[in-house]
Design goal:
heterodimer; A: alpha+beta; Arc Repressor Mutant, subunit A; Diphtheria Toxin Repressor, domain 2; SH3 type barrels; 3 domains; 6-stranded antiparallel beta sheet; two-stranded antiparallel sheet; 8 strands; B: alpha/beta; Rossmann fold; Helix Hairpins; 7-stranded mixed beta sheet; two-stranded antiparallel ribbon; 29 helices; elongated
């Protein structure tokens, strides 16, 4: 796959978060490319089935496009974290550096990077969430115990899983993956958030405050960073 | 450690036994917010002791009851969600249950949240102690349209289930009766050990232990046998040890490793097998099974119908609304502070007048040595009575109402993101608010924070909150001589300092910040008897802590001053007081007195210079003196910091306090100098 394709999809991943449609002008601004060439490229991407494009309305990612976009974003933000935390490169430089390196990073190296960095959840420069991996683990603890071999045996997770912090009021979901160290995991398990549990969002505090979820007949407030690490499969009906 | 634990705990029990009355111990266990302390108060009456678990900073409440010629100790275990080792509270609870073996455990569960509560019940059942389930808050469940078939629940669990509404006293007699019947049977069983325990205590003859699926159960049974074979008494039931080993419980592994290393290795191998079967860590698999069981039981016994939105629901919505939520939070905090200071000032004046009738409470530093010491002791006592009690009691009272009703949880929910900017999470707002009354209980209250790191950081924030005594200085100096806006400015500076210092400390202190995980229990009318008793118990322990420090330090400082030994110390520090802070040299004396009791800064100033301080101090000096006095801590705070956090962390906090006090004081002096 061409690097430029990956760059476009990555930009769209960020721009289409919260179910928004991305306008061509926003894309051109983000990638610093002239609007005319953006429109042309978007049409190409639509032909290949990566995006849905309606002129004058905007662009959304298809399932196929989303998978690549999420993967690239994950690699990009993991690399930023690595450059910043391990190599001590300044916050202002990591983005540019990661942009070049991400296209060469293999899936195996991505997996090792995540383990070495202890499953980080936020990238250092703009504090954006690092998307979870697409392997079938239910917790990072399981991944740590698995080690580096036979990764193909684990199977893949559904791609459209979403952090609880991104759900809207009254949306429901099923817990599929909890990121982080085992202290948080154990605490959440004890409160009833075992894999497969149905939850629903009952209220959200403003300004990136906590979300209140209904789980097993109880109400639980989760701070933004905790909710950002609990991933669910969104239920079809709200 | 264990010896001390046993000794301290059973001191009273053994004494009582010698009286001749037979004796029982009943422990109350359960989640937080299920009305456990209301049950505790219903059972025990007024005879209660609150203190710490030996060697641990976890609150312990113990009560006594005389019933049918029996003397009964009732232990209120901390509110917890599990018996793992996530928190000190959990460790304390399981050590107590396993090692002190109460005769009966009453597991208080909240009927509105049956499933999550049953998860804990299933774990308690594994501890092999006679158990009663007390299904409390039935009224709240009914108002939410939740119906629970208690008979069916009793059958499924195999332990007695008693439905109660503790706030109205319903079901308490039946609970007592059942507890006594079980306790009697249990003691009988201990004396005639022939029948297996579960048959002796549970009539239907159902084993009251949690069964897991075949893959897990098989391993638990094998490991239980292996644990029994090695015949090393770990002080815990064998099956429970086996379960904890399979879960990878670090504490149990540690204990066993000292006695039998190979068994630990065996258990680890079994846990690995389980991981391969379930494709997740063994403890995740076991927790999931327990919850699946809790869910199955709940589905069987519970039916719910939808209800109309109640008034409580509406209020709840308002308390966390986008705009109304913040209004609500501000009104609650401001209301709490206003209530405390308005009521506190009135009470304080009343008491101070009553005391000044006996003797002058203004510090005396001349006369015979013993007269000075006596004045210091008496002054300390009066300060305790006229300052701590009038401000802290109304504060405690209102805080308990806010806490018990669920209002404070909503405030923490709304302010989490603001606290986050500081580097703490929403729960920290509760102890910090408390700090505006008195720092000492506030530092105790940091126990509600999840981790030790967060406790220390919140403690640091608290030491920058102007307490009642500091407020007296702010008003007595700044508002009196400079104007009310200067006092407001000082409050602003206090908030700013808290924010800045904690932000820096969060970065400097090693460890990760943990996020907010907090149960949002339903709004409910608080139980006033419980609140009164809690307030009394807390005030009592505060007085025991603060009063002696107040009295001794006031007497010592006054004595040293009277002997003329303070002057050389003061002169030695004059490079700070007059050189850096720009204060008169004598101000050093005021600050030393202020460490004993904050309001002494003001009182001593009046004694030394007369009541018209503006004749002696410039405005600049008054402001700097008030600012410095506001920031550095008093001896009572230092004492509680050491007690709660240990020497190292306590001295770090005190160092930051004193450093910041001097720094901002000096800066304020220089800035004022520029404008005048």
């Amino acid at each position: 796959m061409k690097e430029s394709t990956e760059e476009y999809l990555e930009a769209l991943y960020t721009l289409t978060q919260d179910d928004k449609k991305a306008g061509t002008s926003a894309i051109s601004k983000r990638l610093n490319i002239a609007p005319a060439s953006v429109t042309e490229m978007i049409k190409k991407l639509a032909n290949k089935g990566f995006v849905d494009y309606t002129p004058y309305q905007g662009v959304t990612l298809t399932a196929k496009g989303f998978e690549i976009a999420q993967k690239m974003t994950r690699k990009h933000r993991l690399l930023e974290k690595f450059l910043h935390d391990v190599l001590k490169i300044g916050n202002d430089k990591v983005h540019k550096e990661a942009c070049k390196m991400e296209h060469a990073l293999s899936d195996e190296a991505e997996y090792a990077l995540c383990q070495t960095l202890n499953a980080p959840d936020k990238c250092p420069d703009d504090n954006m969430a690092i998307p979870p991996c697409n392997l079938g683990f239910k917790s990072c603890e399981e991944c740590r115990e698995w080690g580096m071999d036979n990764l193909e045996q684990i199977g893949k997770r559904r791609q459209d899983i979403i952090a609880v912090s991104q759900l809207k009021e009254n949306q429901k979901g099923k817990v599929v993956f909890i990121r982080g160290d085992n202290k948080v995991l154990r605490r959440l398990l004890d409160m009833g958030l075992t894999p497969g549990t149905q939850i629903s969002i009952s209220r959200i505090a403003p300004f990136k405050g906590p979300v209140e979820i209904a789980v097993r007949g109880s109400k639980l407030a989760l701070g933004d960073e905790v909710a950002g690490n609990v991933f669910v499969e969104k239920s079809a009906v709200n | 450690m264990r010896g001390r634990f046993r000794h301290r705990f059973f001191g009273r029990r053994q004494r009582r036994k010698r009286d001749g009355s037979p004796h029982f111990t009943i422990a109350l266990a359960g989640n937080a917010n299920v009305g456990k302390s209301v049950i505790f108060n219903r059972l025990t009456g007024s005879d209660q002791i609150t203190g710490n678990w030996p060697g641990k900073t976890v609150e312990r409440a113990k009560g006594f009851l005389h019933y049918n010629n029996y003397d009964v100790d009732i232990i209120d275990l901390p509110g917890i969600y599990s018996l793992s080792t996530f928190s000190l509270e959990e460790v304390v609870s399981r050590e107590y249950i396993a090692q002190e073996k109460p005769d009966v455990i009453i597991n208080v569960i909240g009927a509105p949240v049956l499933e999550r509560n049953l998860f804990f019940t299933l774990q308690l059942m594994e501890m092999n102690i006679p158990l009663i389930v007390c299904l409390n808050q039935m009224d709240i469940a009914i108002s939410k349209g939740i119906m629970i078939d208690t008979e069916k629940l009793e059958k499924l669990l195999g332990v007695p289930v008693i439905a109660t509404v503790a706030s109205r006293g319903e079901g308490i007699e039946k609970l007592k009766e059942t507890a006594f019947r079980l306790a009697e049977q249990h003691q009988h069983h201990l004396h005639h050990q022939q029948i297996p325990i579960h048959q002796a205590i549970n009539e239907p003859g159902i084993t009251h232990t949690t069964r897991y699926s075949a893959n897990i159960e098989e391993r638990i049974e094998n490991l239980t046998r292996a644990v029994e074979e090695v015949k090393t008494d770990l002080g815990y039931p064998s099956r429970w040890v086996a379960i904890k080993l399979l879960e990878g419980d670090s504490k149990i592994k540690e204990i066993l490793a000292e006695k039998n290393k190979p068994l630990v290795a065996t258990s680890e191998a079994m846990a690995k097998e389980m991981q391969d079967i379930f494709h997740q860590p063994s403890y995740v698999a076991m927790t999931s099974e327990r919850y699946a069981l809790a869910n199955e039981i709940t589905e069987n016994v519970q039916s719910s119908k939808s209800t109309k939105r109640t008034l409580a629901d509406r209020l709840d919505k308002l308390a966390t609304g986008r705009v109304t939520g913040y209004v609500f939070a501000v009104v609650i905090i401001a209301g709490l502070l206003a209530w405390t200071f308005i009521l506190g000032t009135a009470l304080s004046e009343l008491l101070a007048n009553a005391f000044s009738f006996f003797q002058s409470v203004d510090p005396q530093v001349s006369g015979t040595f013993w007269a000075v010491i006596w004045n210091g002791l008496f002054g300390g006592l009066v300060a305790g009575v006229t300052l701590v009690i009038p401000y802290v009691v109304p504060f405690y009272l209102m805080l308990a109402v806010l806490e018990d009703s669920g209002i404070l949880t909503r405030v923490a929910f709304m302010l989490d993101s603001a606290m986050h900017r500081m580097g703490l999470h929403g729960k920290a707002i509760i102890p910090i608010i408390l700090g505006y009354g008195c720092n000492v209980p506030a530092i105790y209250a940091t126990r509600i924070m999840g981790s030790w790191r967060e406790r220390v950081l919140t403690g640091l924030a608290i030491t920058f909150s102007p307490c009642a005594a500091r407020t007296i200085i702010i008003f007595g100096l700044a508002a009196q001589f400079l104007g009310i806006w200067w006092a407001v400015l000082l409050y602003g500076i206090a908030v700013l300092l808290t924010f800045t210092v904690v932000r820096v400390a969060v970065r400097v202190m090693p460890g990760e910040s943990s996020g907010l995980i907090m149960e949002m229990h339903s709004f409910k009318a608080p139980s006033f008897t419980t609140i009164l008793k809690q307030t009394w118990a807390r005030t009592k322990s505060l007085i025991f802590m603060v009063m002696p420090i107040y009295m001794v330090t006031s007497a010592v400082v006054q004595g040293i001053y009277a002997l003329g030994w303070l002057q050389p110390v003061n002169n030695a520090f004059s490079f700070l007081t007059s050189g850096w802070l720009g204060l008169p040299v004598m101000a050093g004396i005021l600050l030393i007195f202020g460490a004993a009791r904050k309001e002494m800064v003001l009182l001593m100033a009046v004694v030394l210079f007369g009541s018209n301080l503006s004749a002696v101090f410039t405005n600049q000096q008054i402001f700097v003196l008030a600012l410095v006095s506001m920031v550095y801590p008093c001896f009572a705070t230092i004492g509680v910091l050491i007690k709660e956090y240990g020497w190292k962390a306590a001295w770090a906090i005190i160092g930051v306090n004193v450093g910041v006090a001097l720094l901002v004081g000096g800066i304020a002096d220089k800035i004022w100098g520029l404008f005048s």
